[in-house]
Amino acid sequence: MELKDAIYGHRSIREYEDREISPELLEEILDAGIRASSSGNMQTYSIVVTKDKELKEKLYIAHMEQSMVVDAPVLVTFCADFNRMRKWLALNDAPVHFDNFMSLMIGAIDATLAAQNCALAAENAGLGICYMGSTLANCDQIGELLNLPENVVPIVGFSLGYPAENPAPRDRLPMRGIVHYDQYRDYSEEKILEIYKDRNEKGWNRYMEVPRLKEMTEQLGLKNLAQIYSVAKYTKESHLEFSQTVLNYLEKQNFMNNE
After folding, report:
1. Are residues 136 and 181 located together in one domain of the fold?
2. What one-character-per-residue DSSP string does 135-204 give?
3. Which domain holds residue 70?
4. H/E element, 252
């Protein structure tokens, strides 16, 4: 597959063939991740590859019972990791810090860049992936299951395997609604309505075509896609709860030192 085709043909895959990924191909995909850009070339991330069925069953709960966690042959978790670097600093008589929020952000960016490189390499080889926001939302549970030490936090993860479905690629907001030249230019109400016009229609139609989603929408009395996002999918209450989970875990993992 041409890389351009992989990029423009991306879609989230939730159903997988009962087929293993060869060690050689998996190593090639992971090596692509390691070649990603990295702040200061510190590579402050670790990649946890999970194939053990019993462990995936436990991770299935932590990942909010998403079926691809157990159905895909491989689950890949990308973690911000200053544990390794801090030990290297200590062994070389260098100041040991990197235990603050800025460090966490650097590691999170590094981990995300590596994850996307792996995703592109996997899709370019004919595999499918599905990113899971539950990696960060339930970082405490996932961190415990993956035996993550202090100064390591799961940031992003995806299921990986051979697709057993071929969903249509999702629509994207138009470039004119996302790209700003020279400086950010805030949006007028008219511009917002124009940018989201297709999304409003296509997103709403997608919900109406799936019986269980249509039923949920009708039960909640939702009238448009914006209401679906803020009332049904991503409520304020859930985001506040997940925010506190993440903050508590960052404290536990030694990333909130302010001194």
Report:
1. no
2. HHHTHHHHHHHTT--TTEEEEEEEEEE-BS--PPPPP---GGGT--SSS--PPPHHHHHHHTHHHHHHHH
3. 3-167+238-252
4. helix 236-252
d(CA 105, CA 110): 9
SS3 (DSSP) at 46: strand
Identify whether the C-beta of residue 170 lies closer than 8 Å to the C-beta of residue 11: yes
Asked if 99 contacts 81 with a C-beta cutoff of 8 angstroms, the reply is no
**195 and 161 assigned to the same domain:** no
Rounded CA-CA distance 189/198 in Å is 16
Written in H, E and C, the secondary structure of 74-90 is EEEEEEEECHHHHHHHH
Q: Is 52 exposed, middle or buried (0-12, 13-18, 19+ CB in 10 A)?
A: exposed
Q: What is the mean pLDDT of each run of 10 residues along the chain (259 residues)?
A: 88 97 98 98 98 98 97 98 98 97 98 98 97 98 98 98 95 96 98 96 93 93 96 95 97 94
pLDDT value at residue 259: 82
Instruction: Looking at the structure, tell me whether residues 137 and 197 fall in a common domain.
Output: no
How many CB atoms within 10 Å of residue 1?
10
Predicted TM-score (pTM) of the model is: 0.95
Helix (H/G/I), strand (E/B), else coil: 241: helix
Give dist(CA 47, CA 78) in Å, integer. 5
pLDDT of residue 237: 96
Alpha-carbon 124 to chain mean position: 19
134 and 216 housed in the same domain: no
Cβ burial 180-207 (10 Å sphere, 16+ → b, else e): eeeeeeeeeeeeeeebbeebeeebbeeb
